Amino acid sequence: MINKHKNTIVTPWYIFLDIDGVLITTPIWKPDVLHEDGYSDFRQDCVKNFNELVQQIDARIVVTSSRRHTKNRDELALIFQNREIYTPIEALLPIYTEANNRKEELTLFILQNRYEKYIIVDDDLSLHELEPTIKQNCIITTYSKGFDREALATAQLLISG
Fold first, then answer.
1. What Pfam family is a match, any one (predicted)?
2. Is the pTM of this model over 0.90?
3. Which CATH architecture has domain 2-160?
4. Domain residue spans in the chain?
């Protein structure tokens, strides 16, 4: 993308985004609260925080959630729009048969695509084992809190520096 005011090329930020534990924080033992469209609702303060982040950057979403196994990109885009997240979903993380967990899936995808600017937002504990050059771009949320103000502040530090 070219910034018309400065005649410079703006490299987008890719946000590798999980859903459960980031935007949905319903305890596992409770049924999800359903949105009027029949799909799980997102926690409103997490949506607000996420939208605050993406308004600061040229963002693209890559959905990493296991929910990508049951919904395609267009279906997830509509679900996000219904919950007031309008940032484009660029892609779904591919399902790698050789990968044993989210850490391995993300590592394969990031190394294959050589992203310049990215943030991983996820609650998957396997991400603690990411190689340092990838982990430095990772925000591991707590399932019960999701993308809270602390996670937003961490993301803002990543994009500013």
1. HAD_SAK_2
2. yes
3. 3-Layer(aba) Sandwich (3.40)
4. 2-160
